[in-house]
Amino acid sequence: MNGVNSEWNKCYKIWVIHSILYSFSTSISMTYYQAYAIKILGFGVNEIGNITFLNLAAISLGNAIGVMLLNRVRSKRVLLWKAFTTLNLIFWALTGFSDIVMPRAIYTFVFVAQFGGAIGGLAYSDTIADTIPKSKAIEIFGKVNAYVLSSSVTGLSVATVIFLFLDVRESYRIIYLMSLATAIASAGVLYLITDLVKRENIKVSLQQFYKKISEVIGDNAVKHYIIFVTLFTFFVNVPGALWNYYIIKIFRGTEMWISLNTISSTLANAIGNYIFGKASNRISHKNTLAYSTIPISLVPLLFLFSNSFEKQVMLNIFSGFGWSAYNLMTGIYNLYLAGEDRVYMISLLGITTNILAAIATRLGAAIASINMPLMQLTFLVSFIGRLAMYILARRYVIEI
């Protein structure tokens, strides 16, 4: 028993260290890639729409391929986690060097990063769900999320200081070099982890995959949950390509706004994770998930009136706390709602949510490129659609 606990403690520490480094690297590369594309590559709203569409479409494709690949080599799922997460880390960091290669190289970098992240994420979820008992999941994930979010704040704080003292082009070069260095370190640490629970390989044909997916969504609880999350994701992403564009072009904000918006949101998220993690034994998963959609719904509406730095920070504190509850609860539902079929449910969820998110983002960008009133309309549509999902969650999502 002591040997088992010792192995668990070792893997837990490796997982935490990797996650901290991963968060530091991606907090930089993913937070600033749109601003980098606007400021350094000269992208407009339509091109930002294209890159955000590719971002989400790659995740959907990765989930479609990943579930069959994972089943075929499930005994080596940790190797999949390592290899594809490394692609995710390195290629996200490379986005900040697109001006050296050619501006449109950023499309390739983002696509490969997100494709790798989708497959690596499936392998990670399957491994972790077998390792952590459901009864301790909220407590453990709450604690790890706090470490991860603290690392993200540190990365963004360092980037903010760099933007204060150097010109824009030099700042982007330095922060993306930092992202690349920590990406390599994170991948190196991840290669030390081992799988504590062995799984057998399962050869799944495309026909078998569709059959299994049909069985999974034949469960009404799973089907209703997937419908709720997919529709909610669609409405969230209608203005998905516009937040940073609106800040930079309409509100005349700078990278400082983007940095401190993300930092304030992340800190509120960390506090929310801590609170909900501590209260995990006393809260209803269903009610927490449903009620979390209300503050999240108000964000796009309030954003249109948040035309100063101070208002943006306050809005992101409000937003971060709401998202902490939603993300924590969906994390638990994703791992445990479908039981042993979780890989198929997570894969299907990844496919449906990201296809609709990609469509919503591209549609929103196309509409927003016509004129300013239509750009503002995309935020209002997002507000109304998100709010309607509260009713859907209350009526159809079950307690877990």
UniProtKB/TrEMBL annotation:
Query: Mind telling me which SUPFAM superfamilies this protein's record contains?
Result: MFS general substrate transporter (SSF103473)
Indicate whether Transmembrane helix appears among the record's keywords.
Answer: yes
Instruction: Keyword check for Translocase, yes or no.
Output: no
Gene3D superfamilies the record matches:
MFS general substrate transporter like domains
Output the superkingdom of the source species: Archaea
For this UniProt entry, which segments traverse the membrane? 12-33, 53-71, 78-94, 106-125, 146-166, 172-193, 225-246, 258-276, 288-305, 317-336, 343-368, 374-393
| Key words, A-Z | Membrane, Transmembrane, Transmembrane helix
The residues forming a coiled coil are none
UniProt xrefs under PANTHER family: INTEGRAL MEMBRANE TRANSPORT PROTEIN-RELATED, MAJOR FACILITATOR SUPERFAMILY (MFS) PROFILE DOMAIN-CONTAINING PROTEIN
Q: What is this protein called?
A: Permease
